[in-house]
Design a protein that fits this description.
Strand content: 15-25%
Strand order of the largest sheet: 2-1-3
Helix content: 40-55%
Number of strands: 5
Oligomer: single chain
Number of domains: 2
Number of helices: 2
Length: about 120
Amino acid sequence: MAWFKIESGIVIQKQPDQGEGFIEAPDDVVCGYLYDGENFSQPPVDIAEENKAAARQALTASDLTMDRIAEGVSLGLTTWTTADVIAFVQYRRSLRTAATTGVALPERPSYPAGT
């Protein structure tokens, strides 16, 4: 057990010994937990922030595919107007939106199509 200071329903300090204004709770409670007067709980997960981070990672992971597409276009092996290229470019556009707004990530299309 440990001792915790609560302000506005949020754990702001943890210490091993009792102090004025501290309440006792299990050791697994940490600063940032919520306290409703009876129970401690983890704060809700910010889904939007998780989506933003995942979108940034997906953009980075798709950079190589965009390089392959650009190379294929420059070599005349494909064009910017083929369905699979358009789908992949639109996917990256949706990822950029998700990276700034936190909306759900789109499904990654295959490139080339069917792979």
